[in-house]
Specification:
Rossmann fold, alpha/beta, binds NADP nicotinamide-adenine-dinucleotide phosphate, ProC C-terminal domain-like fold, P5CR_dimer
Length: about 270
Amino acid sequence: MTQKVAVLGTGKIGEALLSGMIRAGWAPGDLLVTARRPERAEELRTRYGVTPVTNAEAAKTADTLILTVKPQDMAALLDELAPHTPADRLVISGAAGIPTAFFEERLAQGTPVVRVMTNTPALVDEAMSVISAGTHATADHLAHAEEIFGAVGKTLRVPETQQDACTALSGSGPAYFFYLVEAMTDAGILLGLPRDKAHDLIVQSAIGAATMLRDSGEHPVRLRENVTSPAGTTISAIRELENHGVRAALIAALEAARDRSRELASGKKD
Ligand SMILES: NC(=O)c1ccc[n+]([C@@H]2O[C@H](COP(=O)([O-])OP(=O)(O)OC[C@H]3O[C@@H](n4cnc5c(N)ncnc54)[C@H](OP(=O)(O)O)[C@@H]3O)[C@@H](O)[C@H]2O)c1
């Protein structure tokens, strides 16, 4: 049986998902999209051959609804969807910080909801998407969500209680690496290198290190020890990182991100 999937609110994340699904083999004819602006809907039709519909049509027609509007637009979208969404639709939320209960309260009793926290490397098919089941979502529903988000990277199932921690690690994670690259590039400039050369050196080092972490199966401590020779350059740098409390700063930073995610999920906006 053909399963129709609709992406509702097809912005940056929605489009990354859509293009990944098509590359992974989904037929554009089975994919519906919704957008707020007609020109955006036409752009998606031209670019991918998918069918733009209204939110209500998507709810009536598609088996799976993937909601990728901004968190602040979600309540209005659910108000629009609720009268048209039968309880057998799988609703997948890609919005940061909104609990599955928020959807369950606004949709028909028994609607299966799956919450997914992905991250921006979805744009380059290297996402880390963390997936949790709502009250009525079954193993099949989770598997379907994994199949969809697997088109743009890796997926991991976690209990919903761990979503705030995962937001701190992988949701915001790419930003910490961008910040590190920025700081290390500044250091390169201090050491006398032109900005573009410093940038290239650091970015390629980051790609190399990430590839080794992913592919070697080695613990990061072992990988670091391998390049830390007695009385060498690396240990001199590591001593300064420890002196400046970088490890403690990272632990505190991720704890702060987790706490902020909890606040946002509970409705506290400022
Ligand atoms: N970007 C990230 O880093 C990131 C990472 C992880 C998760 N997320 C989550 O992904 C979701 C989308 O983020 P994004 O960065 O892709 O945002 P985005 O580019 O603004 O995409 C959202 C799209 O939804 C459209 N929209 C809003 N209300 C609508 C409605 N009622 N009907 C149809 N379309 C509607 C918006 O239209 P307009 O263009 O007219 O505003 C926009 O095109 C968010 O919930 C966010 O929490 C984002």
